[in-house]
Amino acid sequence: MLKMSNISKIFRTRLIETHALRSFNLTVNDGEFIAVTGPSGSGKTTFLNIAGLLEDFDTGQYMLDGEDISGLPDKSRSKLRNEKIGFIFQSFNLIPDLNIFDNVDVPLRYRDMGAGERKDRIESALENVGLSSRAKHLPAELSGGQQQRVAIARALAGSPRFLLADEPTGNLDSLMARQVMELLESINDQGVTIIMVTHDPELARRAHRNIYLLDGQISDLEEVTQLPLNQNQSQSQRADHAAI
Amino acid sequence: MEIRPILSAMFRNKLGAILIATQIAVTLAIICNGAFIVYKRYQTMNRPTGMDIENIFAITSEGIGSNHNARAVAAQDLEVIRAIPGVIAASNASSVPLSGSGWGETMQTTLDDNAPTTGTGVYMMSDQAIETLGVNLISGRNFTPDEMLYRDENSGQIPNVIMITQALSDQLFPDENETALGKTVFFDSRPIEVIGIIEHMHGSWVTWDALAQVSIIPVLTLSNQTRYMIRTEPGMRDQVMPQVEEALANVNSQRILRQLRSLEEFAARSYAGDNTIAVVMMTVIVLLVIITAMGIIGLVSFLVNQRTKQIGTRRALGAQKFHVIRYFLVENWLITTIGLSVGLVLTILLNMYLVEHFEMPRLDRIYLPIGLVAIWCLGFIAALGPARKAAHVSPAIATRTV
Ligand SMILES: Nc1ncnc2c1ncn2[C@@H]1O[C@H](COP(=O)(O)OP(=O)(O)OP(=O)(O)O)[C@@H](O)[C@H]1O
Ligand SMILES: [Mg+2]
Fold it and tell me: SS3 for A26?
């Protein structure tokens, strides 16, 4: 469902150029649950932003559901984000002035959807994450784990095929993190493709596939075994990773 | 539309919204009443005077010395003036209409002690009065030269005939079918025959409610001071004015010539107060509009900056640029509309206050919808810039900021 070939992304400031992604290649199949790990600054968020159409890339090709993304106008990209992709952020990104119900409503408002259908979807999404009773609360009145579950409900309310999460458990303690992870797994079981960036090796192990990013490129163990030349280097990186 | 969630977000950050709504309310009240005041003043200043105001001027001649034959001097002066090319007509004039100084008299239709009296502004002029003023004689006739009365300064003598304006005729004879023409009326309690009706003419005192009740009598008062009014061909006035001054000086140097002034200038001086009020009011309105626009720009910019992450998140969740712009425009429209509804009440209260304490007329209702629409547009235009800036917030902000 997602195919990136030779994607590169360079951030230019006046003083330096940062190659956040270099000749990045990745294919993700329908229904996969992928965990992305890697040291800070290795390009995980950049990858996720490009995958989620939040950011442009400089070169390469990105096919989403068979559609070539490059050159799409902003309006079509917004529609794709709205209809196909759900986002979960490390700091939840709930809108503090809106109650839980209205927060989940936000992405639905950008569709031509009647009030009745929106209400049904919001209620069932909140039920899904076990927060139906909190619909009228403000985000600040909820714990971190609860807020992240609201964010998941918000991401799911639009029935995306594709869920992108940037360190969804980064701001949560381990108990809450595990609850969120279980929720993501059950969502994945329902057929939603998930890509999750995480620093937590234990959570990463529970995914179907792990991608290790280093310096803007994937250094995947399977790929590495096919390329004996790089084997030693990659294995040491793998060891680094396990130690994080 | 997302009005309910916008409102609930607004009510959680009330202060800025309340300040701007208050400012908008005050702005509406002041610009509606201010614009009304300006309009009323200009309406007053631009009332038709009945005269050919653009092509008339006056000059005063003051003879030096005692053996001064005023009648001969005036006759000679008028002859000289009338000979200047571009002059249509010229006449002596006891005072200048619209100038703020003149002679007022009372008129009655009978000498009965209980008979109502009517005020009139009186101009002593010559048989060229009608042509000189450029007024329209709608019935009756003009003076003839032999009807002229030459009288001494201190004599109370009055002539036999008078021309009056329609407004004065209507005041004297309120009955619709009756006219003053041909009737003998009492002028300062003495009989005089109305021989002509002038369609319309303004007198000297622009704030007097009987401004249009004017009468003209064929008189030259013999004193060493004579005033002349001169009417020129259209567009020739400014050229002729110095020529008249020069010609009068040449024909007789035993005098001082002063107050060479156009009728428009006399009028402008009389209306100077109205003009000042109008200009001050317009300045206040313009400043207020600018300040309100800046207030709106400031508030919307502040809200946009404060919500950068929220905007990025909305974009990430699928908001198109136009959704973001619409959000801020609708929010601002709601604030403006709340301000305007308070402003409507304030506008009416302010008008009631002005009516009571400053003799202002009641505000024409049309000012309210015009004011509303104007401020709606102002709010829309002011908010558009910051709202478009909001649309440029990158969706990547959602993952990049903590
Ligand atoms: N807007 C930007 N301008 C300039 N450089 C940027 C920008 N965003 C990211 N970078 C740089 O791109 C590189 C990759 O950043 P990215 O955020 O993708 O890393 P990451 O793997 O998500 O790191 P972390 O684990 O700390 O979140 C980094 O060197 C970062 O400094
Ligand atoms: Mg990151």
Answer: strand
Confirm or reject contact between A99 and chain B (CB < 8 A): yes
Q: What angle do CA A163, A165, A168 make, to 5 degrees?
A: 135
Residues lining ion ligand 2 (Cβ < 5 A) are A 45
Q: What is the ipTM, given to two decimal places?
A: 0.88
Distance CA B303, CA B9 (A): 11
Q: Which residue ranges make up each domain of chain B? A: 3-46+273-398, 65-253
**Contact between chains at B318 and A154 (C-beta distance less than 8 A):** no
> How many Å lie between the alpha carbon of A27 and the closest alpha carbon of chain B?
22
Q: Domains of chain A by range and CATH?
A: 2-237 (3.40.50.300)
Cα B190-B194-B199 angle, rounded to 5 deg: 135
Q: Most B CBs within 10 Å: which of A40, A97, A119, A147, as the mutation test of the B interface?
A: A97
Nearest ligand to the CA of A43 is 1
pLDDT of A80-90, one tens digit each? 999 999 999 99
Mind listing the pLDDT tens digit for each residue in B129-184?
999 999 999 999 999 999 999 998 888 889 999 999 999 999 999 888 888 899 99
Please answer whether residues B332 and A96 qualify as being in contact, where contact means their C-beta atoms are separated by less than 8 angstroms: no
Q: Is the CB of A130 under 6 A from ligand 1?
A: no
